[in-house]
Design a protein that fits this description.
Layout: E1 7-13, E2 15-16, E3 28-29, H1 37-51, E4 60-67, H2 75-85, E5 89-99, H3 106-114, E6 119-125, H4 129-134, H5 141-153, E7 159-165, H6 172-183, E8 189-194, H7 202-205, H8 213-229, E9 233-236, E10 239-241, H9 247-253, E11 257-261, E12 266-271, E13 274-279, H10 284-292, E14 299-300, H11 306-314, E15 321-322, H12 325-330, H13 335-346, E16 350-352, E17 356-359, H14 361-365, H15 367-372
Parallel strand pairs: 1-4, 1-11, 2-3, 4-5, 5-6, 6-7, 7-8
Antiparallel strand pairs: 8-10, 9-10, 12-13, 13-14, 15-17, 16-17
Helix pairs in contact: 1-2, 1-10, 6-8
Length: about 375
């Protein structure tokens, strides 16, 4: 009998107050939507019911409301969705919700908490008003700090703050100031990552002036040191924690299973010895229509693509990768990747032990060089 992998659930809410100029996520301005939240909720529930059989006898170890801005989804509507999914959640299931500081109050946070949400991920990005304005955020630093305080007051003890660095003309001093403020506000997890200019965004076609490579390197080096001093352990490329890792993200990075519902959501489910994927239509109206027509667009991933997919995800996490993980999650023999891993070792990018392999310090900086071996 084949052992079943852990499984999580991702729920996508596709609307925001407005689209940020750097954002390439599947999101749309709320005031231009032709769909109602009620019609979207109904589609989510139907989609869930149509595909819940794929998780077999498992229960979700994590549920993640992402977006867009899920904190625009009213607690009253979210309650209906939670009623459907709760029976399929483990007792200690991590239930996360992304929130924008400009869209939550103490009362709404208390409402989400009462529904079972036990982890908040607050998209602050910066505590510098100039940077927030350049990033097109709808909140200022005062609202961001108030939202962080309200998360704690509402009873959340599992709390992530998103902070960007490498912002337009940002100095090292300002980047470190953002870290200091964020870590002083009660969060136990920090997502600290570099602003990148994506093609299909406003910044992609109208690039702002970003720090040069030397400045970026200085920001990262000093940021790594500061976070360590503040008690935040870096366990993956952009994830830092004082006590608890993000279980939802670990499901992705360890190449476990996940069911995604909502516009543009992706799924990866192991069915027998096959790895199957699905990507939902990105347009909310098209997604709702597809759900009504009961279309199921799962397809098998080519076995030749699995080594790259596994390494792309698993090497994000800095824990040692055990030798049996590749076989357990892909059902392919370790010999498929052994020679390429040894090449990365010879290049000083990986180190081997009796039980597995892990990135060297050089490998963390040159992760893409390892991944290219599997293309």
């Amino acid at each position: 009998m084949i052992d079943l992998l852990p499984v999580s659930l991702y729920i996508h809410y596709p609307w925001c107050i407005r689209k940020c100029p750097y954002c390439d996520f599947n999101s749309y301005p709320k005031n231009k939507s032709v769909c109602t939240d009620e019609s979207y909720l109904n589609a989510l529930i139907i989609d869930f019911k149509q595909n819940i059989n794929l998780i077999s006898n498992r229960k979700f170890n994590a549920v993640y409301f992402g977006g867009g801005t899920p904190s625009l989804f009213s607690p009253k509507l979210m309650e209906k969705l939670m009623h459907e999914i709760s029976p399929y959640c483990e007792e200690n299931c991590e239930i996360s919700m992304e929130a924008n500081p400009g869209t939550v109050s103490l009362e709404s946070l208390k409402d989400y908490r009462s529904l079972g949400v036990n982890r908040i991920s607050l998209g602050v990005q910066s505590f510098d008003d100039r940077e927030l304005k350049l990033l097109g955020r709808i909140h200022d630093s005062k609202a961001a700090i108030e939202a962080c305080n309200n998360v704690i007051k509402a009873g959340f003890d599992n709390f992530n703050i998103d902070i960007m660095h490498g912002l337009p003309e940002q100095t090292t001093q300002k980047a470190l100031a953002d870290i200091k403020i964020a870590t002083s506000l009660g969060c136990n997890h920090l997502s600290w990552y570099e602003l990148t200019l994506e093609e299909d965004t406003y910044f992609g076609s109208h690039p702002p002036k970003l720090p040069n490579e030397d400045n970026l390197a200085d920001i990262e080096e000093q940021g790594f040191v500061l976070l360590k001093e503040l008690g935040f352990n870096r366990y993956e490329v952009s994830g830092y924690t004082k006590d608890r890792r993000c279980q939802n993200n670990l499901n992705y990075w360890f190449f476990y299973d996940y069911l995604g519902i909502g516009a543009g959501a992706h799924s990866k489910i192991k069915i027998g010895d096959k790895t199957c994927r699905r990507g939902n239509p990105q347009d909310p109206s098209s997604y709702i229509e597809e759900v009504k027509n009961k279309k199921n667009n799962f397809f098998e991933v080519k076995k030749s693509d699995l080594p790259f997919e596994f390494m792309l995800n698993r090497l994000r996490v800095f824990d040692e990768t055990k030798y049996d993980e590749f076989e357990n999650t892909t059902r392919l023999n370790f010999s498929t990747v052994k020679d390429k891993l040894e090449k990365a070792k010879d290049d000083g990018l990986l180190q081997f032990s009796d039980t597995g392999y892990a990135l060297t310090d050089k490998g963390r900086w040159m992760l893409n060089d390892i991944l290219e071996l599997f293309l």
